[in-house]
Write a structure and sequence with these properties.
Number of helices: 1
Helix content: 10-25%
């Protein structure tokens, strides 16, 4: 069993294209649930992909997909937002 990156609920693996979390009903086969997802990387992915996936929370058919081990993808986004805000305040942009 694995955990949903959005809410932490137990989910069964492997995750298929159309699978949703039984608790929060969010799509699981999406960029934000992938261990290769990185907003700072080219196209938001640490793998070498040819075309970008524009909506990172929609289901996709990426062959590189690997369910993340992170407890919550949303917490990472919030932390990144706060860090950007602190830098902005530091340099008075």
């Amino acid at each position: 069993m694995a955990k949903c990156p959005f809410c932490g609920a137990e989910i069964s693996v492997p995750v298929h294209h159309s699978d949703e979390c039984p608790s929060c009903n969010k799509v699981l086969h999406c960029c934000k649930c992938c261990s290769f997802y990185s907003p700072e990387a080219h196209f938001g992915c640490r793998e070498t992909i040819d075309e970008p996936v524009w909506d990172k929370e929609k289901a996709n058919f990426c062959d590189y997909f690997r369910l993340t081990e992170r407890a919550s993808a949303g917490k990472d986004d919030e932390r990144a937002r706060k860090s950007r805000e602190a830098l902005k305040n530091l340099f008075n942009f």
